[in-house]
Amino acid sequence: MSKHKKQHFVPACYLKAWRAPDVPPRHTPYVWLFDKDGSNARNKAPDNIFHETDMYTIHRADGSRDLVLERGLNGLETEFARIRNRKLNFRRPLDQDEHTLLCAFTAAAQVRTPSSREHHRQQWERPLKMMEEMIEWAKTATPEEKKRAAGMHIPSSTSDGGMTYEQVKELHAHPLQMMLMPMIRTVTPLLRKLNLAVFVTTDEIGFITSDHPCVWFDPESYKRPPLYRGPALMYKTIEITLPLSPSHCLFLNRQGITGYIDANQDIVDDLNRRVRFEAEKYFVVRRNTLRDYWFDPGVEPEDSWEKLHAKAGKTGP
User: Fold this and answer.
1) Which of 10, 138, 155, 169 is the most buried (most CB within 10 A)?
2) pLDDT (tens digit, 9 = 90+) per residue, 185-236?
3) Could you report how far apart the first and last alpha carbons of the chain are, in Å?
4) For the sheet containing 31-35, what is the strand order?
């Protein structure tokens, strides 16, 4: 079990599709890795990037290492590689089980990364702090003060529907170990309900990927107030993309777009820009090549929520 400490948050078997086509003879195959801003280009073997030590390992009280999450992810990665090699690369239709497995792989790609881990850790920061402050307050509070605060007690069990301090502390300390599989099980059937398309390109650069390759994007979100801009499955315009290889990119949507679709250069560039902007620190290309459009933030549309409300303010009483 000590041999399984190196755990990838972007699978090496997934990244192998981005291996450079012009690797010199007798060299280890590599991909081109860039910092998010496009600097520091270097070639790296897929096995040597996007990993952490014991990222998914559950450490038991007796000191043993439980690898159930790592093994489960490895199994999912194996199935994905099979689907890519036998079906996607040949534009063959997926059966029901393959469709579900591809959605599960996409759900995992979204939640298994360090950026996702830190996001969920931050979500538990405030309730943990409140519980710790309450515990400290209770040490010196008078009986009368405790009686008045009875409605804010810290539960010792979940029998009343609450969570214990120990549970919240564990969720904050190890969000992936606690939440990874429940989140994959929850999100997969929701993704399964979306329309599934695969964009295909023969461009020599093709689709790029990153250290956070699954992108949830809503091209209409700029029209909504800031509080409602987060991409969500409730919106008809939601688009979820995952580069599957330099030649293929998954496109989940609610607009009726399905099947294999030949992507023109504008589509390829736009999806690559999304991937580059969504990257946490690094992105991957099959060649030592960049395109300026990937770094273009664009301009604010005239019908954005901010501009329309600014105009309304100017014409108001």
Assistant:
1) 10
2) 999 999 999 999 999 999 999 999 999 999 999 999 999 999 999 999 999 9
3) 71
4) 42-44, 31-35, 282-285, 209-210
pTM over 0.85: yes
Measured CA to CA, the distance from residue 241 to residue 217 in angstroms comes to 8
Domain holding 145, by residue range, is: 2-315
Beta-ladder partners of 282: 35
The token duo for 47 is: 């096995």
User: Which among 124, 178, 132 is positioned nearest to 154, based on CA atoms?
Assistant: 132
How many angstroms separate the CA atoms of 102 and 192, rounded? 9
Express each pLDDT in 37-80 by its tens digit: 999 999 999 999 999 999 999 999 888 999 999 999 999 999 99
For residue 204, give the 3-state DSSP assignment: coil
The residue type at 234 = M
Q: How many CB atoms lie within 10 A of CB 209?
A: 30
The dihedral built from the CA positions of residue 260, 262, 266 and 268, taken in this order, carries a sign that is positive
According to DSSP, the β-strands at 31-35 and 282-285 are: antiparallel
Both structure tokens of 52? 């952490």
Using alpha carbons, select from 120, 150, 122 the residue that is nearest to residue 134: 150
At 249, phi and psi to the nearest 5?
Answer: -140, 125
Q: What are the backbone angles phi and psi of residue 264, rounded to the nearest 5°?
A: -80, 175
**Which tokens go with 183?**
């989140």
Nearest CA-CA partner of 196 in 82, 86, 266, 93: 93
Domain count for the chain: 1
Instruction: Taking the CA atoms of 37, 42, 44 and 49 in sequence, report the sign of the dihedral they define.
Output: negative
Q: Is 19 helix (H, G, I), strand (E, B) or coil?
A: coil
